[in-house]
Inverse folding.
C-alpha cells in the first residue's frame, strides 16, 4: 500500500503518485452542530473525553461547518505515504496534500469518535490543523494539539473509548506505523 518507498525522504510526489485513488475508509456527516451539541452527544454516549479535547473544542480555532456535509475519510499508516524513515508532522501533512488528501475540519475528531464504535485497542490521529491550547499548569503559551481517537483496554470507563487532545507540533517525528485519517479531496 505504500507509495515509492525507494524515494528519498521529503522528495515531491510524482504525477502517478498524485493520481493515486485512495480507498474511502468511512464517510461521516459533519457540520450543522454547535460545540455544545457535540459535547452533549459525547456525554450521552458515555464517551470519555480528555480535558484537552474539551479545551480544543472551546477555542476560537474550533469552527464547525455551518451546514451538514458528507466527508470521505482515508485511513493510512505514515508508511503508506511513501516514507521509509520517521517523518515530521509537517512532512506528513505536506505529502498528504501532494497526494490529493486534505486536512480534516476540526469537528471530524468528535464526530468520528461518536460514529467509530468498534475501535480496537489503538490510537488514530486526526490529520488536522493543530489548535493552540494554553497549558496553565506549565506554560501560558498555546500548545499545538490534535484530536486522537483511542481505545484503552485498561480504562473500564466508557469501555475504553476516548477522545484525546494530544500535543503534536509540526516538528515532531512520527513512527511509520502511526495511523492518521485525512479527508479525501473532492
Amino acid at each position: 500500500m505504500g507509495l515509492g518507498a525507494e524515494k528519498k525522504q521529503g522528495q515531491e510526489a510524482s504525477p502517478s503518485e498524485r493520481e493515486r485513488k485512495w480507498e474511502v475508509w468511512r464517510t461521516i456527516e459533519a457540520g450543522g452542530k454547535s460545540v455544545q451539541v457535540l459535547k452533549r452527544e459525547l456525554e450521552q454516549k458515555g464517551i470519555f473525553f480528555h480535558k484537552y479535547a474539551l479545551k480544543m473544542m472551546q477555542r476560537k480555532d474550533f469552527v464547525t461547518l455551518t451546514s451538514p456535509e458528507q466527508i470521505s475519510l482515508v485511513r493510512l499508516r505514515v508508511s503508506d505515504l511513501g516514507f521509509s524513515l520517521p517523518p515530521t508532522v509537517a512532512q506528513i501533512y505536506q505529502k498528504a496534500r501532494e497526494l490529493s488528501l486534505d486536512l480534516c475540519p476540526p469537528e471530524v475528531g468528535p464526530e468520528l469518535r461518536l460514529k467509530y464504535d468498534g475501535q480496537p485497542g489503538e490510537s488514530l490521529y486526526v490529520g488536522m490543523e493543530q489548535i493552540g491550547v494554553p497549558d496553565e499548569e506549565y506554560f501560558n503559551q498555546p500548545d499545538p494539539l490534535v484530536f486522537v481517537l483511542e481505545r484503552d483496554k485498561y480504562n473500564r470507563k466508557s469501555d475504553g473509548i476516548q477522545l484525546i487532545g494530544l500535543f503534536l507540533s509540526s516538528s515532531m517525528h512520527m513512527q511509520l506505523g502511526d495511523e492518521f485519517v485525512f479527508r479525501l479531496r473532492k
Observations:
- The longest helix spans residues 35-44.
